């Protein structure tokens, strides 16, 4: 991972020179929670006065870094391309992406340039609205994917694994609404949320374990696990609705 990041930074510096404001690493790969199979190397590149030609010029800098894979309706990216943003756009987007920005603030490392993360000011009202939207979206996607793949055990297994990434991201955001100190470990996040909302804790722990152990959930139990996730997501939505 370090070699890939070092090469990316070197190429970005050569491409943008003084226009390069900041390069940010964020997410699980900032900490010891980085998983070789399920953790993306998430990076953000902040450019002063970002233009279309800058994006075209960046192709060479990110070509080797980015290797993408897509799985069904739940995309999974191995080393997704860096997110490029204009400096002014970065600071003006807090109200649009409060979940993403709160996650970045929780775990980030400035690889190069200015610390543009520390000054961010996030409003809880915006965070609650996005939490409600994301939970509803998760429920819809879970149903939609199950309709398409309900007769394919392999696809259902993959659905359970990949959807867990989205669940845990939303769980952390919901807990931030309650002024909790958010643990990084997924199992502790599940435990903390289960103390506040009526969720099936064991079901979420099972899909967490499934990411590393294909036998964590018996294939005959896939259907009941999907139902538990749907029921729990519905309960989480009710909980978020009650948060002022």
Backbone structural class: alpha+beta
Overall form: globular
Q: Strand share of the residues?
A: 5-15%
- Distance between termini? 41 Å
- What is the strand tally? 6
Low-confidence stretches: 68-77
Order of helices and strands: HEEHHEEEHHEHHHHH
The order of strands across the largest sheet is 5-2-1-6
Rounded radius of gyration (Å): 19 Å
Major sheet:
4 strands, mixed
Count of helices? 10
Mean of residue pLDDT values: 88
The tally of structural domains comes to 2
The share of residues in helices is: 40-55%
Task: Give an overview of the whole structure.
Residues 68-77 have low confidence and may be disordered. The radius of gyration is 19 Å and the shape is globular. By secondary structure, it is α+β, with helices and mostly antiparallel strands. The longest helix is centred in the middle third of the chain and has 26 residues, at 124-149. Helix 6 (124-149) packs antiparallel against helix 7 (153-176), helix 6 (124-149) packs antiparallel against helix 10 and helix 8 runs antiparallel to helix 9 (201-210). It has helices at 2-16, 52-57, 59-62, 87-91, 98-106, 124-149, 153-176, 186-194, 201-210, 222-242, and strands at 20-26, 42-47, 67-71, 74-78, 83-86, 108-113. The protein contains 10 helices and 6 strands, in the order H-E-E-H-H-E-E-E-H-H-E-H-H-H-H-H. Helix content is 53%, strand content 14%. It starts with a helix and ends with a helix. It folds into 2 domains: 2-113, Beta Polymerase, domain 2 (2-Layer Sandwich), CATH 3.30.460; 124-242. It has a 4-stranded mixed sheet. Strands 3-4 form a two-stranded antiparallel ribbon. A hairpin with a 2-residue loop joins strand 3 and strand 4 (74-78).
């Amino acid at each position: 991972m370090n070699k890939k990041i070092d090469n990316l930074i070197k190429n970005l510096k050569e491409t943008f020179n003084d226009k390069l404001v900041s390069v940010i690493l964020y997410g699980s790969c900032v900490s010891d929670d980085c998983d070789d199979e399920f953790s993306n190397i998430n990076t953000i590149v902040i450019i002063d006065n970002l233009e279309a030609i800058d994006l075209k010029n960046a192709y060479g800098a990110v070509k080797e870094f980015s290797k993408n894979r897509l799985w069904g309706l739940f995309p999974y990216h191995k080393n997704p391309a860096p997110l490029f943003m204009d400096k002014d756009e970065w600071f003006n987007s807090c109200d649009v992406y409060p979940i993403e920005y709160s996650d970045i603030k929780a775990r980030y490392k400035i690889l190069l340039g200015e610390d543009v993360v520390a000054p961010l000011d996030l409003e809880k009202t915006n965070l609650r609205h996005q939490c409600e939207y994301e939970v509803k979206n998760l429920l819809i996607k879970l149903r939609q994917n199950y309709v398409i793949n309900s007769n394919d055990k392999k696809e259902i297994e993959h659905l359970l694994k990949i959807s867990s990434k989205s669940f845990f991201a939303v769980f952390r955001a919901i807990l931030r609404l309650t002024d909790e100190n958010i643990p990084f470990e997924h199992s502790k996040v599940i435990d903390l949320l289960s103390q506040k909302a009526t969720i099936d804790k064991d079901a979420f722990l099972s899909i967490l374990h499934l990411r590393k152990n294909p036998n964590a959930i018996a294939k005959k139990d896939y259907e009941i696990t999907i139902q538990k996730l749907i029921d729990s997501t519905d309960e989480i939505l009710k909980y978020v609705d009650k948060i002022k």
